[in-house]
């Protein structure tokens, strides 16, 4: 019995359609894993990290939830019994130490951990969080506005308590901003608690406003809204590079600092994808992205000279900065600080 050519063509078309349908079904059955990542990284950096990670892991898509460190920390703690995030990235180590103490992180040693400077990751084995980069306190000083007001250039934290600076200083609110919190905890650790609070009482007399962003004080100094802004070196460098008439001051007593870090949230339904993210954050490629903005990154030998940041910057950081102490005492410190100084907080 012979088969007509028209029938063979029909069979061939049917087979192609069936194959395409199967392929489409397979694609639909394997969608990208959507990874919900809470972050406090600067908006400038979000796209670079997302693009780099998704290029290395095309089967995973990052969905960001971004806010300042204090807000992200509060959000994570509020969600403790019903966690929403799969991972955190670029959140202060002092905050991640608190989450670890609350049992909210999955301890995990990423593939590239051995390549990183151990000083900038959790010392536990395996670590609850892994460092990305260091950010430290920097004072932005507008030379033009200071000259108009006949303000001398401060050299130290103690200088900022002099009466000549009354109403001329802005700094971040420690409950909202990781930068504000690293300032407060550094002063308490450097000067001792009694003298630390005395110092902040005196500084408060000269504060015009406590902002809810670590970047904003330097931005305000750059535009001349206030001549002095207590901020951090990333934003200080960016403001200076934009052409603003600011000098970067690194107070001689020492610089408060923290680490932007990554971790995995306990309860994630996307554990392997979250591990992939933390693995990737330890790579040379990810650290090269960090080095675009930061003078100190976790991967040794990657950081480049940043304009306006001194060569000995790392040596200026406060020694024995205890993130676990900062985490354990966070609620107490913020309650005390708020009771003393909240009257000058920026309105939300």
TrEMBL record:
Signal sequence bounds: 1-29
InterPro entries: ABC_2-AEP-bd (IPR017663), Ferric-bd (IPR026045)
Domain of life the protein comes from: Bacteria
Keyword Signal in annotation: yes
Keyword list, A-Z: Signal
SUPFAM superfamilies: Periplasmic binding protein-like II (SSF53850)
Presence of keyword Signal: yes
Entry-linked Pfam families: SBP_bac_6
Name of the protein: 2-aminoethylphosphonate ABC transporter substrate-binding protein
């Amino acid at each position: 019995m012979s088969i007509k050519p028209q029938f063979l063509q029909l069979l061939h078309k049917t087979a192609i359609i069936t194959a395409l349908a199967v392929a489409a079904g397979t694609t639909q059955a394997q969608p990208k894993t959507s990874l919900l990542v809470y972050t406090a990284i600067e908006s400038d950096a979000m796209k670079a990290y997302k693009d780099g990670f998704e290029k290395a892991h095309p089967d995973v898509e990052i969905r960001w939830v971004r806010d300042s460190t204090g807000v992200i920390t509060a959000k994570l703690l509020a969600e403790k019994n019903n966690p929403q995030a799969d991972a955190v990235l670029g959140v202060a180590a002092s905050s991640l130490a608190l989450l670890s103490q609350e049992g909210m992180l999955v301890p995990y040693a990423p593939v590239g951990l051995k390549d990183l400077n151990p000083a900038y990751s959790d010392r536990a084995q395996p670590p609850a969080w892994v460092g990305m980069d260091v950010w430290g306190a920097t004072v932005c000083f507008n030379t033009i506005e200071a000259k108009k007001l006949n303000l001398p250039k401060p050299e130290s934290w103690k200088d900022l308590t002099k009466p000549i600076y009354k109403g001329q200083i802005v700094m971040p609110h420690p409950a909202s901003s990781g930068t504000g919190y690293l300032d407060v905890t550094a002063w308490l650790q450097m000067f001792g608690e009694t003298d630390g609070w005395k110092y902040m009482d005196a500084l408060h007399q000269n504060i015009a406003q406590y902002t809810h962003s670590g970047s904003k004080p330097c931005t305000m100094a750059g535009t001349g809204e206030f001549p002095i802004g207590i901020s951090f070196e990333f934003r200080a460098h960016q403001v200076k590079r934009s052409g603003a008439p600011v000098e970067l001051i690194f107070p001689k007593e020492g610089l408060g600092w923290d680490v932007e870090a990554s971790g995995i949230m306990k309860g994630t339904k996307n554990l392997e994808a979250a591990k992939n993210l933390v693995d990737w954050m330890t790579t040379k490629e990810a650290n090269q992205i960090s080095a675009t903005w930061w003078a100190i990154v976790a991967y040794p030998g990657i950081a480049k000279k940043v304009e306006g940041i001194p060569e000995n910057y790392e040596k200026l950081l406060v020694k024995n900065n205890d993130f676990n102490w900062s985490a354990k005492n966070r609620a107490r410190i913020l309650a005390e600080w708020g009771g003393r100084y909240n009257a000058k907080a920026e309105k939300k």
